[in-house]
Write a structure and sequence with these properties.
9% helix; elongated; 8 strands; 1 helix; single chain; eight-stranded antiparallel β-barrel
């Protein structure tokens, strides 16, 4: 998955170098979706999944953003050479915040800070544990125009996760996301 995201990033840089007719102003209403890889540094595991977001421009260069995402991984637990159980780890989040953006040449750069709720869960065949957390996610990204209303989006974020109700410190997650952004209204 990481190789695919790197290949998409390389393709995006190549596309950005090609001449395109890009609109001069940023979209008023925009929707985006794509794939995401989250590195959970506390548990040393990579989670893969999706994200979807919407944004509304309130002033030139400033937008309100709402984002939802889900990432997961299934691990097999072994006892010697025998698989004894499968555990599904998942992280789901809903966040909102602000995005600052500017356009240099044809590529739109942005920085955003989102905050919201993150739910981490782990399940085995007999038990599901869901733990809600407050999360703050600052990030940087690029929108590379592909067509008049369509752009390739590449984003790198860090998630700072609060202490849960049991007093567990949950650390930081890093997220690499790539997908597409579509301008619904200019």
């Amino acid at each position: 998955m990481i190789r695919r995201l790197c290949l998409i990033a390389l393709l995006a840089v190549t596309v950005a170098a090609a001449p395109r007719a890009a609109a001069a102003q940023e979209p008023k209403i925009e929707a985006g979706a794509g794939a995401a890889v989250v590195r959970d540094s506390k548990n040393s595991v990579n989670l893969r999944g999706w994200y979807a977001e919407g944004s509304y421009r309130i002033r030139p260069g400033i937008s309100i953003v709402v984002e939802g995402s889900s990432t997961w991984r299934t691990l097999t637990i072994y006892a010697g050479d025998f698989a004894v159980d499968r555990v599904k780890l998942s992280v789901d989040s809903v966040m909102a915040g602000a995005r600052l953006s500017t356009r240099l040449w044809k590529v739109r750069e942005f920085a955003q800070v989102l905050a919201g709720r993150l739910s981490g869960s782990g399940s085995d065949t007999s038990f599901v544990d869901v733990t809600p957390h407050v999360v703050v996610q600052p990030g940087l990204g690029l929108d590379i125009p592909l067509a008049q209303r369509l752009a390739l989006r590449i984003e790198l974020d860090a998630r700072y996760i609060s202490v849960d109700g049991r007093g567990n410190q949950n650390g930081v997650q890093f997220r690499l996301a790539s997908g597409f952004a579509y301008a619904l209204r200019r």
